[in-house]
Amino acid sequence: MTGDRATISRAYSVVSRIYEEVFNMGKLEQADTLIATAYIDHNPIGLGGKSGIEGFKQTVVTRTTMRGTHKNSFMGVDPTNKQVTVSGFDIFRIADGVVAERWGTLDGLTLMQQMEVFIPMAWQYTLLGCARPRGA
Fold first, then answer.
1. Lateral strand order in the sheet of 98-106
2. pLDDT score recorded for residue 70
3. Which Pfam families match (predicted)?
4. CB burial class (10 A; 0-12, 13-18, 19+) of residue 102?
C-alpha cells in the first residue's frame, strides 16, 4: 500500500477493528460499518461480497488440531505406530439453531507424510483440499 502515514494508519485501523471487534469480540454489527457495500471477497471460500456478510453472521469457523498414533489401517495404509498431528478447519452455517451446511478440510498431505507414505503428485491436491492449478 502506498500513501502518507496518516492514510496507512487509517487503513491499518480499519483492518485491525475487523479482527478485534468483529472476530474477537463478536460485534458482528460492526461489519456493516467497516466493509463497503460493493465489497468483493477474492478468497475461494470467502463470503462472496457484502451480501455474504449477513450469512457470515450465521457462520461458525473452527480450526482443529488432532494428535494420535497411527495404530490401525487408515486409508489403505497399514499401521505405522507413528505419532501424527493433523490440522484442519470447518465452516458451519447455522439456520434455525442447527447446523445446515458444513465446509471443511484436513491437511491430508502432511498426515500422509508423517506416516511416511509416498504420495503421487496427482493426489497431493486432493489431500490438501484444494483445486489443481491450471496446467498442473
1. 59-69, 83-95, 98-106
2. 92
3. SnoaL (PF07366)
4. exposed
Cell of 12: 491499518
* Structural domains of the chain, with CATH: 1-57 (no CATH), 59-136 (3.10.450.50)
DSSP assignment of 68-136:
EE--S-BTTBPP---EEEEEEEEEEEEETTEEEEEEEEE-HHHHHHHTT----HHHHHHHHTSPPPTT-
C-beta of residue 118 within 8 angstroms of C-beta of residue 80: no
Give the residues across from 94 on adjacent strands. Answer: 99
- Residues in the chain where the model's pLDDT stays below 70: 1-3, 40-57, 120-136
Instruction: Please give the pLDDT value at position 31.
Output: 84
